[in-house]
């Protein structure tokens, strides 16, 4: 891991019950994202499993930020994820704009402005994105 506090930084509150999908690949991928220990190239390079860190799309480093926000391979499903999350945000009682980050996608429960149900919906949208990407992370 690049940082021993990665998961703590995402989920600082002990006892927060996390949602996991029924699909094993999606669940493992989500857990690995939380632990900052995925099958993305940047992590595989760290362990000497891969020699490249560049994404197969040719437009960036294959890391979590690139996977969720930049990779051309996932642009069509990224739009669906963004639309789903914006609908949840707009239907909530929150004012202002939403800054989508990796931390927000993986641990919306840590956002004090969302209800548990709204956080649950956001994580479910992230699970669908992971599933549609057809990539076990």
Provide a descriptive summary of the structure in words:
The structure is a single chain. The chain has 137 residues and is an all-alpha fold. It has one domain. The protein is 50% helix and 0% strand. The chain has helices at residues 6-10, 24-35, 41-46, 64-69, 75-91, 102-106, 116-133. α2 (24-35) crosses α7 (116-133). The longest helix is centred in the last third of the chain and has 18 residues, at 116-133. It starts with 5 loop residues before the first helix and ends with a helix. The mean pLDDT is 85.
Concise structural overview:
With about 140 residues, the chain is mainly alpha-helical.
Strand content: under 5%
Largest sheet: none
User: In total, how many domains does the architecture comprise?
Assistant: 1
Spatial shape? globular
Q: Based on the structure, what is the oligomeric state of the protein chains?
A: single chain
State the low-pLDDT regions, or none.
none
Structural class estimated from helices and strands: mainly alpha
Cα gyration radius (Å): 15 Å
User: What is the terminal separation in angstroms?
Assistant: 15 Å
How helical, in percent, are the residues? 40-55%
Order of helical and strand elements: HHHHHHH
Number of distinct helices: 7
Integer average pLDDT: 85
- What is the number of E strands? 0
């Amino acid at each position: 891991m690049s940082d021993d506090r990665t998961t703590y930084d995402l989920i600082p509150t002990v006892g927060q019950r996390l949602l996991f999908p029924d699909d094993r690949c999606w669940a493992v991928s989500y857990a690995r994202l939380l632990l900052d220990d995925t099958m993305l190239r940047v992590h595989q390079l760290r362990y000497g499993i891969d020699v490249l860190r560049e994404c197969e799309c040719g437009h960036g480093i294959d890391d979590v930020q690139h996977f969720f926000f930049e990779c051309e391979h996932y642009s069509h499903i990224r739009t669906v994820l963004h639309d789903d999350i914006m609908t949840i945000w707009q239907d909530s009682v929150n004012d202002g704009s939403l800054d989508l980050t990796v931390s927000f996608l993986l641990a919306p429960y840590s956002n004090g402005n969302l209800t548990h149900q709204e956080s649950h919906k956001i994580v479910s949208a992230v699970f669908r994105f992971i599933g549609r990407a057809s990539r076990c992370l």
